[in-house]
Write a structure and sequence with these properties.
- Keywords: Membrane, Transmembrane, Transmembrane helix.
- About 9% of the residues have low confidence.
- It is globular, with a radius of gyration of 19 Å.
- It has 201 residues and is mainly alpha-helical.
- 73% of the residues lie in helices and 0% in strands.
- It has one domain.
Length: 201
């Protein structure tokens, strides 16, 4: 079904306004309890990832990062369960991480509605702080978990490098080559996990 470009642009603007307005209206304020923080995270994730991804591999990267970091968060929560102050600190980091993913996603969405000459410079500025926040929280969780850290899946650009497609034009017969490679990597990982499970059993 064809959707006019102006409809998509208006939709993106409305979604961006809803997201930023929800943060200003207290959704992103620091609650005093772990349950309150986790409730805010659920709300934020529904706002960020409950929307159409516009078939973008970058948005799928953010979804994947969120899914994996959630596992790392729950593992840390259990590890420090007898140290409430530490769990609260980790929960706040987890919430900041999800906020950073939301900021990164909407910075990319703005590429479709901001037609100014310096759009890429402005997008770079919009993405700078959330990118650093994302990386620093990942480093912190990794240091705390050690060998139990679950790696974030490679992003779009790393997948392109691995597939040796960097600098090459898309094959006209396979316009969604990034999906093909990504699904292949997931299948390979799942098969490896199944084999390991069989050996353990």
């Amino acid at each position: 079904m064809y959707i006019p470009e102006w409809v998509l642009i208006i939709g993106i603007i409305i979604l961006y306004w809803i997201y930023t307005n929800s943060r200003k209206n207290g959704v992103s304020q620091q609650p005093d309890s772990i349950e309150g923080i986790e409730g805010n995270v659920v709300f934020l994730k529904s706002r960020i990832f409950g929307l159409e991804h516009f078939d973008s591999p970058h948005f799928l990267d953010y979804q994947n990062a969120s899914d994996v970091m959630e596992v790392n968060y729950f593992r840390l929560k259990q590890r420090f369960i007898h140290t409430p102050e530490k769990v609260l600190e980790i929960a706040r980091d987890w919430k900041r991480y999800v906020e950073a993913l939301g900021d990164l996603k909407y910075a990319r969405l703005m590429l479709d509605v901001d037609w100014s000459d310096d759009i890429y410079d402005k997008t770079g500025e919009r993405m700078k702080e959330p990118t650093i926040a994302k990386e620093e929280i990942e480093k912190k969780f990794k240091d705390l978990l050690g060998k139990d850290w679950q790696e974030i899946p490679p992003d779009y650009f790393k997948r392109i490098d691995t597939a040796k497609l960097k600098g090459k034009k898309k094959d006209e017969e396979t316009p969604d080559y990034w999906k093909t490679f990504y699904m292949g990597e997931l299948l390979k990982k799942n098969m490896t996990d199944m084999c390991r499970h069989s050996e353990i059993s």
